[in-house]
Design goal:
heterodimer; A: mainly beta; seven-stranded mixed β-sheet; four-stranded antiparallel β-sheet; B: six-stranded mixed β-sheet; five-stranded antiparallel β-sheet; 0% helix; globular
Chain lengths: 113, 111
């Protein structure tokens, strides 16, 4: 069964460093998403991406964040200058259509020291 | 006002019992509803989606949606210890791509 994959599974970085989280969505899906979950808190939407552009973003998704689909398979989230409060689990998701089920990848646990 | 509300639990049921999980929401523009299961440290895993009023059954799981009362529920029949997890209610709004999640209800199934 097709699934969303994410790399790395864990990332430790120093405050102020740039990190890139990578995702490979399900191959025939057209909509891609990033969510994050701070430990003990709810899953929060960051951004959605369709047709090579951002379709929606939350207030969390400020200028420090960017997304890109550099090729036909990868979808990346870049955090330019990490802060301590960026420590969280980051989930990539994809869906075939906008209102259909979103399937989540296994996540990247980011720890900012 | 919270958009999606769930009782945090834990909800403890004996093995073989029916577990009933509830979720209320505030935005009447909510269009699609989802139940995800999340084991500790893992990603949300889809259990069921429901889009129209009424019941939808899939194996041991039944989702119920009542848009007039703005609630959605999940029944798990013949609960198993492996069902012990946090159950997340999520919805999508009209003209929006994002899922809005509740905080989740922790379910414990006692052997």
């Amino acid at each position: 069964e097709p699934e969303v994959t994410q790399t790395p599974s864990h990332q430790v970085t120093q405050m102020g460093q740039e990190v890139i989280l990578r995702c490979v969505p399900i191959s025939n899906h057209l909509y891609f998403y990033w969510y994050r979950q701070i430990l003990g808190q709810k899953v929060e939407f960051l951004v959605s991406f369709y047709n090579n552009e951002i379709s929606e973003k939350s207030e969390i998704f400020d200028d420090q964040f960017s997304v890109e689909r550099p090729d036909g398979s990868n979808f990346t989230l870049k955090i330019r200058s990490t802060k301590l409060e960026d420590s969280a689990m980051y989930f990539c998701a994809s869906s075939a259509l906008a209102v259909e089920t979103q399937y989540f990848g296994p996540g990247t646990r980011l720890l900012v020291l | 006002q919270k958009e999606v509300e769930q009782n945090s639990g834990p909800l403890s049921v004996p093995e073989g019992a029916i577990a009933s999980l509830n979720c209320t929401y505030s935005d009447r523009g909510s269009q699609s509803f989802f139940w995800y299961r999340q084991y500790s440290g893992k990603s949300p895993e889809l259990i069921m989606s429901i889009y129209s009023n009424g019941d939808k059954e899939d194996g041991r799981f039944t989702a119920q949606l009542n848009k007039a009362s703005q609630y959605v529920s999940l029944l798990i029949r013949d609960s198993q210890p492996s069902d012990s997890a946090t159950y997340l209610c999520a919805l999508s709004l009209d003209s929006s791509y994002k899922l809005v999640f509740g905080s989740g209800t922790r379910l414990l199934v006692r052997p």
